[in-house]
Amino acid sequence: MRTPLERVPSPLLVLGAIVSVQCGSAVAAKMFDRLEPTTVVFFRLLLSALVLCVAIRPKVWRWSRASLLAAVLLGLSMSAMNLVFYQALSSAPLGAAVTVEFLGPLLLALVQTRRLLDLAFALLAAAGVALLGISDAAGGAQTRGLVLAFVAGLFWAGYIVASARVGALLPGTQGLAVSLAVGAAVAGVVTAFREPQHVLPTFTSGDLLLHAVGVALLSSVVPYSLEMAALRRLSTRVFGVLMSLEPMSATLAGLVILGQSLTLRSVVALVLVSVASLGVTLTARAKGVDDRLDDDALVEAGTG
């Protein structure tokens, strides 16, 4: 019997994850005037891990060594991606940061492409990303933030592959729960060295803790669960190009939640990346089983 998530089309799962994570990023950005980005990441991953581990109670002692290693690698990539990206978000607009960060998944899609049509859609998305990046950079995005966003994008590409691996080896969200715990441990160590003075005030402040819970749910629990479910049925190449909707979602979240501007050039860029995502989603339906099996083999080889 299929679970509720398995009844939902994979592209809709990805769309829900995108909207959720960008709203979470916008809420997190509003916390940076009271907390350091590293502290926000720590609480986001910690609270997410607690929610899932209590709800799921993963039986780690029954896992194979390959499953445990896959979950650890996912946790490491997850913590690295978030720690670097939140530093970028503290000095660059949300839309610009996500636009540059998206270069990581886009590079993954290009590396794995096998058809000229896929390449055309990826290049169309790249044009939109470049146009949006130019538009937002003109608004004063700092170079440091954009460089950090690109590094975060490389970790994002690693997260996509690692998440597909975990989803193939472990049922449900057991692997995700353990990966979040690993990520929280890494972020906790970094926070302990960089800003330990912020940890206790967050636990004792009802307002900050409520915001941290909201960020955890929107940015980790909901999107990661949806993405893992989607990656069980989508190739990482198609998933990577679908992620071209991230800049549009981030720009809109910045507009609605943070009051950041949206220019005409941004609108044109958003149309380009949306068309690319729609095109790759529609044409993926006609690819057949053999191509999906080839993609699974590629994921297996890429993660060792």
TrEMBL record:
Family classification: Belongs to the EamA transporter family.
Protein name as annotated: Inner membrane transporter RhtA
Major site of localization recorded for this protein: membrane
Any one GO cellular component localisation term in the record: membrane
UniProt-annotated location(s): Membrane
A Pfam family recorded for this sequence: EamA
Transmembrane segment boundaries: 38-56, 68-86, 92-111, 116-134, 146-164, 176-193, 208-226, 238-258, 264-284
Domain of life per record: Bacteria
Xref: InterPro entries: AA-Vitamin_Transporters, EamA_dom, EmrE-like
Keywords (A to Z) from UniProt: Membrane, Transmembrane, Transmembrane helix
Organism: Motilibacter peucedani
Record membrane topology: Multi-pass membrane protein
Residues annotated as domain EamA: 144-280
PANTHER family: EAMA DOMAIN-CONTAINING PROTEIN, INNER MEMBRANE TRANSPORTER
